[in-house]
Amino acid sequence: MQAPSTATAAQKGLWEKLDASRLPAHVAIIMDGNGRWAKKRGLSRAKGHKAGVQAIRNALDTVLELGIGTITLFAFSTENWTRPPLEVSVLMTLLRQFMRIELARLMDKGIRMRALGDISLLPKPIQEGIHHVESETSENSQLQFNVALNYGGRKEILQATRSLLARHLHPDELTERVFEQHLYTSGIPDPDLLIRTSGEQRISNFLLWQMAYTELYFTDVLWPDFDSTEMLTALLDFQGRVRRYGGIDGN
Ligand code: FPP
Questions:
Q1: Residue 169 lies in a domain
Q2: Domain boundaries, position 218
């Protein structure tokens, strides 16, 4: 692929190796390691999360340049409420700022944002900020950016089941397609690639249904250090995989 003019010499080499016809349509990321990144530098965890927000901007720019259609980022899990109140409050503040500050950039770049998760449990001003950004960006079509907030995979599957039960569906009517329409990700293709930073090799209750055939990529790089070079490296690794979907012949 042709590297953008802003690419470094090393990045140009990676771009050239990438096959445009074999890029993932959807990349999902568990952004892990903000706290360790900060600790290594003697900084507060808040500073680590702030650096994590900059890494989000970089990731959005890189997938846009590549022409990848969808990216989903795990920003706050249903389990993250158990963190110390001060840290939860820092994350909420960053989220509120993100919705206020990033809207102009999302509009400028044609990015459509959608929140996945039970956002009704987030503080009211944040809910309003999210709804505002979702509606303002709803006509954008350059990139679908999903942000998982108060998201849990099991919770998502349970709420889909509840919603189906409420419709008194006959068991024979329940197909995978119908089920998927009741998930937060309705209408969004399953991720082709999951990236998790910081060396942990777990799914952590993320997109449990959707990741049935997703390729998993784990890197020791901490999220704030996950730059364009790291994204290109992950994509090259992905292009080396043979996806069989349970069959015997991949492409
Ligand atoms: C993991 O690092 C990261 C998170 C729990 C949250 C990710 C949040 C951001 C990048 C910033 C806020 C997001 C938005 C959309 C504004 P960790 O704290 O688990 O790191 P550690 O494992 O090294 O402690």
A1: no
A2: 23-154+192-239
Q: What is the pLDDT of residues 66-110, one digit of tens each?
A: 999 999 999 999 999 999 999 999 999 999 999 999 999 999 999
Domain count, the chain: 1
Indicate whether 148 pLDDT > 80. Answer: yes
Give the distance (Å) from ligand 1 centre to CA of residue 125: 20
Closest residue by CA, ligand 1 atom 22:
33
pLDDT of residue 243: 87
CA of 179 to the centre of ligand 1 (A): 30
Cα–Cα distance measured from residue 45 to residue 58, given in angstroms and rounded to the nearest whole number: 20
Nearest residue to 157 via CA among 184, 137, 194, 127: 184
Q: Is 114 a member of any domain?
A: yes
Quick one: what percent of the chain has pLDDT higher than 90?
A: 95
Q: Does 31 contact ligand 1 (Cβ within 6 A)?
A: yes
Question: Within a domain: residue 110?
Answer: yes
pLDDT for 121-147, tens place per residue? 999 999 999 999 999 999 999 999 999
Ramachandran bin of 149, using left for φ above 0, alpha for ψ from -120 to 50, beta for the remaining angles: beta
Measure the CA–CA gap between 199 and 217, rounded to whole angstroms: 10
pLDDT of amino acid 249: 66
- In short, whether 151's Cβ falls inside 6 Å of ligand 1 is no
CATH number for the domain including 222?
3.40.1180.10
Question: What pTM value is reported for the model?
Answer: 0.96
Q: Is residue 247 part of a domain?
A: no
Mutation to probe ligand 1, out of 40, 47, 49 (largest number of atoms < 8 A from CB):
49
Q: 193 has which bridge partners?
A: 27, 215
Joined tokens for residue 127: 């809910």
